[in-house]
Amino acid sequence: MVMDSGWNRLSDQADQKRSEEPEAHRQPELLRLDARMISANRMEGWIAAACYAAILAVLLWLTIRFDWPEWIVIGLAALAAISVLIELLLIPKLRYESWRYGIREHEIELRNGIVFRKQTLIPMVRIQHIDTKQGPLEKKYGIATLTVATAAGSHSIPGLTENIAEELRGRLAALTRMADDEI
After folding, report:
1. pLDDT digits (tens, 9 = 90+) for 143-159
2. How far is 162 from 172, CA to CA, in rounded Å?
3. pLDDT at 11
4. How far apart are CA 133 and CA 139, in angstroms?
5. Within 13 A of 133's CA, how many CA atoms are on the CB side?
6. Mean pLDDT in the chain?
7. What is the DSSP string of the chain?
8. What is the mean pLDDT of residues 128-147?
9. What is the strand order of the sheet 118-123 is part of?
C-alpha cells in the first residue's frame, strides 16, 4: 500500500502553476561559467606555487647565510605546501561550482562565493559601461571576463567563452539602450 503524503500533490500543483505562467513572467535558469575556468584557475595556482618556491629559496639562503633557526623555513614550507594544494585542488573547482549568472530583460543576476554567498541584482537602467577583457591566462584557455560598470562600482562575470562574452556584451548594450528609452 502506497501512502500519499501530500508532497506529490503539492509538487504537481507547483509544476502545473509554472506551466500556466506566461512566458514573460518565467525567470530563466542561471547559467554556469565555462569549465575551462577551472584550468585557468589551476594555472594561477601553479604561478602562485612558483612564487612561493622563490620566496622559500631566498628564505633558505638567508637562513643558511645568517644562521637563522631552521624551523622558520620548515614552517613556512609546510604552510606553502598546504596553500598550494588548496589553490590547485580545491579552490578552482569550488569557484566554478559556486558561480552562476543570469541576463534578463530588466536586470543581471550574479551569484557567487565559496564561504560567503553573494547575490547581486544589477538593474539595466543603472549600467553605464560594458567591457570584455582577457588576460594572458584567459587568452591561453579561450575565456574572457565581462565587466559591467554602474555608478556604484563594477561587477564581473569571469570564465565566459570569448564568443559568449562578446554576444553578452552586445545583448547588454541593446538591453541598456531599451532601458534608457523607457525612462
Report:
1. 999 999 999 999 999 99
2. 15
3. 40
4. 9
5. 9
6. 87
7. -PPP-SHHHHHHHHHHHHHHS-GGGPPPPPBPPPTHHHHHHHHHHHHHHHHHHHHHHHHHHHHHHHT--HHHHHHHHHHHHHHHHIIIIIHHHHHHHH-EEEE-SSEEEEEE-SSS-EEEEEEGGGEEEEEEE--HHHHHHTEEEEEEEETTEEEEEEEEEHHHHHHHHHHHHHHHHHHHHH-
8. 96
9. 100-103, 107-112, 118-123
* Per-residue cell: 169: 556584451
Q: pTM score, two decimals?
A: 0.78
Rounded CA gap, 114 and 119, in Å? 12
Q: What confidence tier does 89 reach under pLDDT thresholds 50, 70, 90?
A: very high
The grid coordinates listed for 150 are 554602474
* Bridge partners for 150 per DSSP: 127, 153
Distance of CA 133 to the CA centre of its chain: 15
Q: How far apart are CA 86 and CA 37, in angstroms?
A: 16
In terms of C-beta density within 10 A (0-12 exposed, 13-18 middle, 19 or more buried), how is residue 159 classed?
A: buried
